[in-house]
Amino acid sequence: MPHAPSLARQLLSDWGRAREQADLCRKSHADMHAGAIETSILLHADPDLARPGYEAANHYASEHPFLLTPGMRECTKSETIGFPSHTTSEKAHTVPAGLTASFANHLNALGA
Fold first, then answer.
1. Of 107, 49, 59, which Cα lies nearest the Cα of 85?
2. Are the C-beta atoms of 58 and 28 separated by less than 8 Å?
């Protein structure tokens, strides 16, 4: 019998598929907070929720080993780790649509 993927792995793959469908940074580690995928969701839900200036708030951090020790403010002045400028109005609709489709698959698997 094949090994069923863990919930965490499945959720990461759902997010990965949404990133891929929207042609966003595929490395969740590089786009992990206030980056393109999260900004896309905010712009879709309510554009006023996106912080003014997000278009210029990109912060690349390939490594952030002490993120949990001093906190995000010590790692990045913008409190962003990622690429919010990569978001477009089209991607702001593609990301939630992809996540919704993935969620529907989970509900179907549960028989809901």
1. 59
2. no
